[in-house]
Give the backbone structure.
Amino acid sequence: MSQNLETFVKHVCRENGNDAGRMMDICRAVQAEFRCVSPEAMTLIAQECNCDRSQVEGVVSFYHFFSTKKQGEVVIWLCDDVIDEMKGSADVAEALKQELGVDFGQTTTDGKFTLGWTPCMGLPDQAPAAMINEELVTNLTGDKIREMVRELRAGASVKDLVKVPGDGMNADPRLNTMVSNNIRVKGPVIFADIENAVGLKAALAKTPEEVIEEVKTSGLRGRGGAGFSTGLKWMFTRGAEGEQKYIMCNADEGEPGTFKDRIILTECADMVFEGMTIAGYAIGSTEGVLYLRGEYAYMKEYLDSVLEERRDAGLLGKNVAGKEGFDYDIRVQLGAGAYVCGEESALISSCEGTRGDVKTRPPYPAQKGYKGKPTSVNNVETFASVNRIFVNSGQWFSATGSCGSSGTKLLSVSGDCKRPGIYEVPFGMKLIDFLKMCGGEDAIAVQVGGPSGELVNPDAFGRSIEYDDLATGGSMMVFGPGRDVLKVASKFLEFFVEESCGYCTPCRAGNVFIKERLDRIIDGKGDKDDIAYLEQLCNTVKVTSRCGLGQTSPNPVTSTLKNFRGEYESRIQENPDRMELSFDINAELTEAAAITGRMSEHF
Amino acid sequence: MSKPKVATAALSGCFGCHMSILDIDERILDLIEVVDFHKSPINDIKTFTERCAIGIIEGGCCNEENVAVLQDFRKNCDILISFGDCATMGGVPALRNGIPLKECLDEAYIDGPTVHNPNKVVPNDRELPLLLNKVRPCQEIVKIDYSLPGCPPSADTLWEALNALLADKPVDLPYELIKFD
């Protein structure tokens, strides 16, 4: 076994150029082969890559899908998202526990199955969902998952679980997955027909400066949610000092409720790669990296084959599309389960083969990014939009949408609506009109922009979906009558507690305290001081955290305090005695009572 | 007009914070000009007989008796001050919070390398208050109005805070008094 391990690690490291920068790929390979990255393996990897062992252990301990303890042959990750919970993930969890005879976080004694929870994997429109090894399974019920487990136990492979593949490219043999697209409304930018290489050739006919000008004319802003001007970002990256520059595509779609990139990547992969190529030309780069979240590993093979086709067609490689002197290629880098890697500097850290730590800014990636070189990190949808801009024009693009937000936006809708799925709508659409479109008119609340966004109440359904009002990277979660918005907020906080990288205290500890205090109010054990405490603590976490995760993680509470204050006020109690209502002396004495065999003398 | 009353309590701490109270030295003479000390280990008054303006609490709560005393202080004092790190955060006693209570007792009375206890008896008399599952800082049990950090807080910190409260001014401590690095 250990001889095997040594041979395998040496082989994998050699394949990756003994480059510690490829730590993600190396660890993924070792994890896949041995179902863990053991301490022994970590030492070997460090030797082979000539890096500190702490770097290897840092990576292995950081990412959700790496494990130092041996996992089962089949690992079942059940999605722990709030929408999945609404759609019955508890039943699925119960069925799994019964069928496997183990709890979450455990492996069956025969070493066959490991059971675990994982945050939103981009399938809330077909929830409850799970990831079985790298295969995504959807629309689960207790019975359905039991049947799957029985099949797997009888020797079926995970691919055998796909009886009826999903629509569109999901049925392509390279994907062959039960995931569905659920595209409900097609718009003119992303989902209109497009011919390969037309946009690229139009861009290459211009000078790089003209390309950037055209993107500026279009008014395109980052589709990940932050909304920074794409043209400006490229201009800064082009203007930054350095010979080597990089383009990165952020496909770490981790914001719960967002799943638009999943559809773009399978239905419009060429558009994304073409946009990346145009970007490479514009900033003067020879290499692009698409960082794909670990949950989307099922599409890696497909994306690689599309890249290969583009190389064969001369659209990647030397002298791209016949443009003398423009050499450019793209590779796909897989992540391994870490929400924070969607933050651009953490994404870069991950690509560099370390923990997904955010970096202090400035310097911004445009000045000092991947491997210390100027790097432009853009969203999947941004790149796809770029391709359309060069097929039509920047002028054309800016004519759609609203004043400060040009173009269309893909919205991924889930929760209590009749038609969950993907909608391509022009920016500036009123939320109420959108709710009518997706069949969610009776919503009592809509979470716009995921947990880090805002929970909007019906009084504000007249607001519009655009950067300067309700900004969203695409996530729209609809909550119907009877849903408890404070429980939703608590669930979101649980997510942030889990996903905080732990680097800075306000985020690592603050989110725990926010959730604890919120739960106190939900349990009816809060008073008005608790509301004041929450307001103060949320502000502290926001203002003192280092990256976007901590700066936005209190949002579920701040936005419910703002938009659903009555929910808090109706649950708090008068407290004239000024005792802490949540303190229960009897619950605090259980251990001592059991040890001493006597009851309290004081209470 | 009678002088405002001040009460103090030492819960699960080391008594160091009370020693720090005594460190106001001769200023204690100025202090008793303006306040009377009520229930406190300093004067050994055991029960509240009248309402107090200020209660100063040293230590967090490690057992049921601590909880009872703290709740009694909350009932009888207008303002409660968590005095020192154990009261505000649990401090050293809270280091046991990561270890099950049984293991703590076994280590202390049976398994510890310096323990001589041939009969392996863990003290268990009804006079001994039951321990809480976890040591709690004061604000997890009752509302606390002010927290003074430090291990212990310096005499000057207390002096400044008491003077501000007695003069009905905001407790606005200079940075030097609440910085510890």
